[in-house]
Write a structure and sequence with these properties.
The chain has twelve helices and twelve strands. By secondary structure, it is α+β, with helices and mostly antiparallel strands. The protein has four domains: about 100 residues, no CATH class; about 90 residues, Beta-Lactamase; about 70 residues, Signal transduction histidine kinase, dimerisation/phosphotransfer (DHp) domain (Helix Hairpins, Orthogonal Bundle), CATH 1.10.287; about 150 residues, Histidine kinase-like ATPase, C-terminal domain (Heat Shock Protein 90, 2-Layer Sandwich). The strands form three sheets. It has a five-stranded antiparallel β-sheet with strand order 2-1-5-4-3. The chain has a five-stranded mixed β-sheet with strand order 7-9-10-12-11, with helices on one face. A hairpin with a 5-residue loop joins β1 and β2. α10 runs parallel beside α11. The longest helix is centred in the N-terminal third of the chain and has 40 residues. The protein is elongated and about 125 Å long. The termini are far apart.
Length: about 450
Amino acid sequence: MGSLRFSLLIAFAVLAGASVLALVVTAASLAIVIAVGAIVAAGGAILWLAADRLERSIKVIRGAAREMAQGEFGTRLPAEDAGELAGAFQDFNDMARSFEERVEAASQERNRLMAAINSSVDAVVALGEDGVVRFANAAAETLVGKDEDRLVGQPLAWAVADRDVIEAVRRAREEGVASRHLIERPNRQVLEAYVAPIAGGGEWTLLVVFHDVTESKRLDDVRRDFVANVSHELRTPLSAVKSVIETLQGGAVEEPDVARDFLARAETEVERLVQLLEELLALSRLESGDLRFTEHPLDMRDVVRSVGQRMAPHAQRAGVELRVDVDGRMQGVSGDPAALERAIVNLVDNAIKFTPEGGSVDLSSRADDGSVTIVVTDTGAGIDPLDLPRVFERFFKADRARQGGGTGLGLAIVKHTVEAHGGSIGVDSQLGAGSVFRLKLPLVVRAEAG
């Protein structure tokens, strides 16, 4: 028997007994005593049923409350069990519905916030008071190469072992000071770390954001190199021309043979200046999209053979064997034949220039499904792996290449020319083992056997 029903029954029994005893004491007739007893028995039965129903309703309410406490926010009280507590049941259901709506709204807001944080390209890490990671977004997982489950609960130094960042975390925790720091990681990656305290963040007391500035840093380096290289490329021929003029003014002009020799040198340097300016102008027009190429259906076999014929004497003078291998299926490219020939000539010329006497250069072509690939392979000095990502930059020259001529613009022009034709260019190289340049052009019309 439930405690509620038992308590009510005891109370009723006491009252009923007292009533009957009072009747007996007052000498009431037996009929009256029996009638009163019947009334008391009926009241007890009614009271028993009411207590039982009330107890069942309370059990239903308590069960629903437990379900909500366990996260079942859709729990509702059944109207058929309400009885006299119908108003209380309705109030409970209204409260549960309002609470569910609030929890759902908060959950959606949290999900939107987490989706935005995880969509960020910046690595975001939240730390606790003890400097331990409490949260890490997807970018942070990628940055350190560890998933969130392995990051959370670990000190930040375990993931990012940088002295400046650790010191910035200490200052932010102890002094409430926000700060920014540049850190360098393997493979020349440069990150800007922003460390700041979090106000009202609960167990999140510090925020660390890592922003990848590698590309910005690279562009800054390129701009600085561009200014330095332009100055260098202009200074050398201008200094030579100035020297010639001074020599002629010093009396060499009176000696015909000497004068002719110095004038020839001046002419060479002026031609070098003209070439530099023309290439700068061409590159500028290519980058801005102002230079438009003519579009003609091409048989790339003719272009490759023409390059081989033009460069054969140059290779012979350098003591380098030039081999040309043309695939039989090369129709279908649309583009400017002169521009594409200049691009391939530049690649072959570089290959010959940096291949020692007795070496070889291979110019080959093949047509795959959807594209034509031109490959220039040499047995030359090769390119340092650290320099490979920059070989197509304006004025960039590997140190060993600075001994040769050229303006350092050729490969940049090649790259922009190929990309203007919808193609791509790449390079593989090893120091001392030569280089392989691959120029790929799309086929407008599927190649057929020829």
